[in-house]
Write a structure and sequence with these properties.
Chitobiase, domain 2, Alpha-d-glucuronidase, C-terminal Domain, 4 domains, 6-stranded mixed β-sheet, 20 helices, binds alpha-D-glucopyranuronic acid, Glyco_hydro_67_cat, glycosidase, alpha-glucuronidase activity
Length: about 850
Amino acid sequence: MGSIEDGLSAWLRYAPLPADLQKSYKSHSKIIALSSSKTSPIHTAGKELQDGIRRILNQEIDVTSSFQPDTPSPIIIGTVSSYAAVGGKIQDVPELKEDGFFLTTKGESVLILGENERGALYGTFEYLSVLAQGNFEEVAYATNPSGKIRWVNEWDNLDGSIERGYAGKSFFFKDGKVLQDLTRAAQYARLLASIRINGIVVNNVNAHCSLLNDENMAGLGRIADKMRPFGLRIGVALYFDSPRELGGLPTSDPLDPAVRAWWNDITSKLYKHVPDLLGFTIKANSEGQPGPLTYGRTLADGANMFARALKPHGDGLVMYRAFVYNHHLDESDLKNDRANAAVEYFAHLDAEFDENVIVQVKFGAIDFQVREPVNPLLANLRKTKAVIEFQICQEYMGQQSHVVYMAPLWKTILDFDLRIDGKPSLVRDVLSGERLHWSKSGYTAVVNVGNDTTWLGNHLAMSNLYAYGRLCWNPQADPVAMVQDWTRLTFGLNKTVVDTITKISMESWPAYEGYSGNLGIQTLCDIIYTHYGPSPGSMDGNGWGQWTRADANGLGMDRTVATGTGNAGQYPEEVAAMYEHIETTPDDLLLWFHHVPYSHRLKSGKTVIQHFYDAHYVGSATAQTFPTQWQALRSLIDDHRFEHVAFRLKYQAGHSIVWRDAVNRFYNAKCGIPDEKNRVGNYKWRIEAHTMELDGYKVVDVKPAEMASQGKAIVTTSNDAPGTAKAVLEYPSGTYDVAVNYYDQMGGRSNYEIFINDRLIGSWKGDLEDKLQHDFSELLDGHSATRITFPGVRIKKGDIVKVVGRADGNEFAPLDYISTLPEGVVD
Ligand code: GCU
């Protein structure tokens, strides 16, 4: 079906509606976009609507900027004031807030009025979104944003790489400079405008001072020019030590007059290129970055220096990141806790920040984990305003090679009641500014789109970006409704398509939490290396403070006031009391706040360790259903996207088993408590590679041991000759799915063939690094471990299974085990 869909137009595909539906659309004679400026978002809106109507409805309409009162049934796009200026009646338009809009389709004409030009563009995208979903219902309503600040951050480096980016290279920078061709930047601005994002910080928070050389400042001006027609303003992340490193000053001390003068001068220059600059994002005294503390000053001194440089130029903001912590923390001190850092560093400065400083707070106190309680800093600010920071790239959530729809996770944060000063204090009401009477606050998210046509590396990952924009506007939006809208716009209106993608999406975060880290223990990925595959042991024994404190007897961080790090006490009284006690802490955050024995019984009645075992089995079993569910869409969506997603879901299903076994085996070895259901370490359908008859293969120990089925794998002994591994199949004759667990590392693309007797049943290459874009590893570990399955293989008792592996480069055709699975069994 259909032509190649590469994902570039994401949810703005404007696919034609079925002809009968097209006919029921009430036609309009003209689009009147009330602005004569070609760079105005209203002009953009006019063109967008013309294009959308042509494609969705197969109708051609002219656009004009001049208002003729007698135009029959027009579509009018403007601001409330520009409409009033041409004599439009505005008495029925409800009062709008900044960026809000009014849309009415009642009667003959359509009226889309923004409080400002950006709002009018948002209203136009809204109208197009309902048309594209075949919804011509007559409506009249106004809508306003919950968050005034609705930004995104991109962690793009000037050399073109993207920190924690899993979708290609930067489309802003290359070789230390701003790219000449900024086509993708404009396309991205269009996508962001359609979800009502009003700001973008274009470079990595780990910033480089050469961003501020003359050529790059001019380049930033070009980026801003591309984005302005979409109502999107740009900001930049700054390197704190730029005065020393770029300016040649002896210090970057924020109270030094020469340093302040240097920043004032840089800021003025920047405003010449970007007159509507959003402001600066600052990561300082964090993960090795210099900052005001380096110079014996307070964080407020640092933030205010930037704030005062911005002040004379207008409404520029300093987004000062609260992600300040010591990453050389001593784990032997049971009182040490990275989760305490934000409150310790910022709370006492509450009255010290200038009015145009906003503190940017990650949603949890550690780092975008699969589950965290709300960052307590959000309950400790009164005067200082804040934005919350989410992450759309899935750094700790499968890096877009796993499907994880995160809107339900974000909702657990936004709907949480912090009970500040004993009063209702939903996080979403703090962020809207209502609860603490903040003049400016809201949202930002790290997106890290790249130049891959899919933007995020996986078509299904885009629902996260879409839902993020919707939640900034209306944090009460329903995750199900959002993913349904997104699916209709992205994949079409077919009910099976919508239902299937919604189901997979809604099951995906619980599944991922199931097979990664449970009960608030965090994601359990390799935090020292790529943050991708399982490595529960990597969480402890280092200074990063993402500790689990797992030993033979128990696990979890004691964060209580009574006996632990005191973190529970950083929350307002009622919440603190809840987290202080095991009995009142919800199971899903138990190990975040408490250190308990493995045999501790949860509210569910299960022990902690049995919960781990079961959750890992249930989570990975859910992931096994994703490729099967997806098969139902084969003829209902285009082949290109069907195959793209099918490939990833199969990979995810296999990797979820790697996760399951690694985590379960790790804790099983730690505590020695067997799985009540006797699954962990007991894999009756597996043939371990190291027990096979080997020729040209040798046995190696895998470290840590839980990264292989029995701690061992095999690798070829030479790159010149193939290795073979053989075994007799002692299973009853029948039809089996044959799964092979192997390691796909960086540094080579091995070849494999698998035979039953001399019958070839499959062949593959260790070339996932060419197909998937998560961070790869050079080692035999939880990142490289993977599984390929050959379904429906006829096997007779006594048959011989043989794998032939040919090494390539530094990848020695490594194998872990072969599973011969009867129908319905996954192991
Ligand atoms: C995480 C991430 C880093 C990033 C940092 C930040 O630690 O792994 O790559 O720089 O967050 O948010 O500043």
